[in-house]
From TrEMBL:
Natural source organism: Penicillium brasilianum
PANTHER family on file: ZN(II)2CYS6 TRANSCRIPTION FACTOR (EUROFUNG) (PTHR47785:SF5), ZN(II)2CYS6 TRANSCRIPTION FACTOR (EUROFUNG)-RELATED-RELATED (PTHR47785)
CDD domains: fungal_TF_MHR
Region named Disordered: 1-46
Protein name stated in the entry: Transcription factor domain-containing protein
Sequence ranges of Polar residues compositional bias: 7-31
């Protein structure tokens, strides 16, 4: 769908083969629909994570006060550790693992240059350079990363991933910390350099913290990476020409743009969950493209490596397009009134229909290699391909988030007494939200990767939304038993929602047992919601 403000496409255009992708540069930022008299996005954007749902009246009155759901102290990262094995065989193995598990999702490194750095460190040992810092970070992340399982049973129990020599045992966690200790001592040197390797090191530090489910530390380093990127831009490109600059090689040009979008994407993702300031890179004055300019896809000889690189870039661009949509949804939901009038609800319905059309456009623009079927009910086919799995989950999140405000209207009684046609349309959206909450809970896969913390937050949010609908239904039954007139537009929770939540929690049990990132507190909150729902059911019959 063309951008409403500038007419160019905000999602990549699909060619005849569904694989020729040439995203146009949309000159409008994600908040382009704001009028000149509207408040700035920095003033209006509110996180849409677990805490926003816990603020609903129905949950606030039925659940205990919330513990911190995003941060708990983790001490071992600051302890001294001995040097790890830094032989070529060890470093080469971890280099390959990083490329397989991380680089294909975020192509921010020059792989030829990375290999030269690995060879240098293996032959000469670690020095105090930023290059050694970068190699240590690559290894620290690779040790923590696990292979995507590729299979899952309907009960929620998963097959054991094949992890080669690594699993999430104490020994591997210790090995990761040994490499991190090397990098930590050199990050200060990286921060004083204006180099591509310095920016890459800060980004990788943020990614390492996300693997450990420490979102605040990750945000700090992504923020530093954004400042370092801007400093590099000002020193290397004083005229601001980052699009057609002739002083850089095509590969360096691609890396610089990929770094920009990886930092931007990482900060936006955290901003969806946490009350942190907007990314310093969010000002499109500094970078006018809506997408990075990839290498010339399809121009290289057909080899397995070239095909994988091409597939990686299609995935990367699709992810960025989804992030633009999520940013617009966060903006839209942030502007919802706490107690909306009938006119405001009517306007919200119109904006929701517009956003659903854009989500549909994103879905239909997917390259054929990433196609997945949209489920009609509460169950979806499990995707054996990791990239398709992530993109399917992005689609579920988009569909859930765009319709979430309507659930609150019903469970908190904010839509009572409004026009029946408005109530009926709002009920349809709220039902869609419940459907996609159920679908997200059905797609729980527990393996160590950068998105584990987001997975737990998403599970907690979906569980609380379903619990809120259940509690509201119990409240309605109590009122009807007391003589209130029944309404035809009330929400009914899915019958199997409790078992779906329990299966999801069981699937992610290893991560819920950790204290970092508020994981164990999230589990307590889910269990408290289940207990409140079951107790309320017993009271209302």
């Amino acid at each position: 769908m063309p951008c409403a403000s500038c007419g160019s496409r905000s999602t990549p255009a699909r060619g005849p083969t569904s694989q020729s992708w040439s995203p146009s540069a949309c000159s409008q930022p994600d908040n382009a629909n704001l009028g000149p008299s509207d408040p700035s996005p920095c003033e209006t954007v509110r996180p849409q994570g677990v805490e926003s749902v816990l603020g609903w009246q129905i949950l606030a009155s039925n659940l205990p006060p919330s513990l911190c759901l995003f941060d708990q102290p983790v001490a071992e990262a600051n302890q001294p550790y001995s040097l790890p094995d830094m032989s070529y065989s060890q470093l080469s193995r971890l280099e390959s693992k990083y490329i397989e598990f991380l680089h294909t999702k975020n192509p921010i490194l020059d792989l030829n240059e990375l290999h030269r750095m690995v060879l240098h460190v293996a032959e000469n040992g670690p020095d105090w350079s930023t290059k050694t810092c970068l190699v240590a970070l690559v290894c620290a992340i690779a040790v923590l990363s696990e292979a995507y399982p590729g299979t899952i049973t309907r009960s929620g129990a998963q097959s054991t991933p094949s992890l080669d020599q690594d699993d999430e045992s104490g020994a591997d966690a210790k090995l990761s910390l040994q490499f991190w200790n090397i990098a930590l001592k050199r990050l200060g040197y990286a921060m004083r350099e204006n180099s591509v390797e310095a920016v890459q090191s800060l980004v990788l530090a943020g990614i390492w913290y996300m693997h450990r489910m420490e979102p605040l530390e990750a945000w700090k380093h992504f923020n530093l990476a954004g400042a370092a990127w801007n400093t590099l831009r000002l020193t290397r490109f004083p005229l601001g020409d980052l699009i057609d600059n002739t002083d850089t090689t095509p590969n360096e040009h691609t890396i610089l743009q990929a770094l920009y979008f990886t930092i931007w994407k990482s900060e936006c993702e955290l901003r969806l969950e946490l009350p942190v300031p907007g990314p310093p890179l969010i000002n499109n004055t500094y970078f006018p493209l809506a997408f990075p300019q990839p290498p010339r896809l399809g121009s290289q000889p057909s080899t397995p490596e070239a095909s994988e690189s091409e597939r990686s870039w299609y995935y990367y661009l699709t992810e960025i397009a989804a992030r633009h949509l999520l940013n617009r949804l966060v903006q839209m939901n942030s502007e919802c009134a706490d107690t909306p009038t009938e006119r405001q609800v009517s306007l919200l319905i119109g904006r929701t229909e517009m956003m659903q059309a854009q989500i549909s456009d994103w879905y239909t623009s997917l390259p054929s290699i990433f196609h997945f079927a949209v489920p009609d009910g509460y169950d979806a086919d499990f995707q054996s391909d990791h990239m398709i799995f992530v993109l399917q989950h992005r689609y579920f999140t988009l569909r859930e988030l765009v319709s979430r405000p309507f659930v609150r209207l019903f469970v908190d009684g904010l839509i009572d007494g409004m026009d029946p046609l408005i109530r009926a349309r709002a009920r349809s959206f709220a039902s869609e939200c419940m459907q996609f909450c159920m679908l997200k809970l059905s797609q729980t896969v527990a393996y160590r990767h950068q998105g584990n913390w987001y997975l737990l937050r998403s599970m907690t949010t979906s569980s609380l939304i379903l619990a809120a609908v259940h509690l509201a239904q119990c409240r309605l039954r109590e009122r009807e038993a007391a003589g209130a007139t029944p309404t035809s537009e009330n929400l009914m929770p899915p019958e199997a929602w409790i078992s779906r939540v329990k299966d999801a929690v069981e699937s992610a049990q290893p991560f819920f047992d950790e204290t970092s990132g508020g994981a164990s507190n999230m589990k307590q909150m889910i269990l408290a919601a289940l207990e409140a729902a079951q107790q309320r059911s017993a009271w209302c019959g």
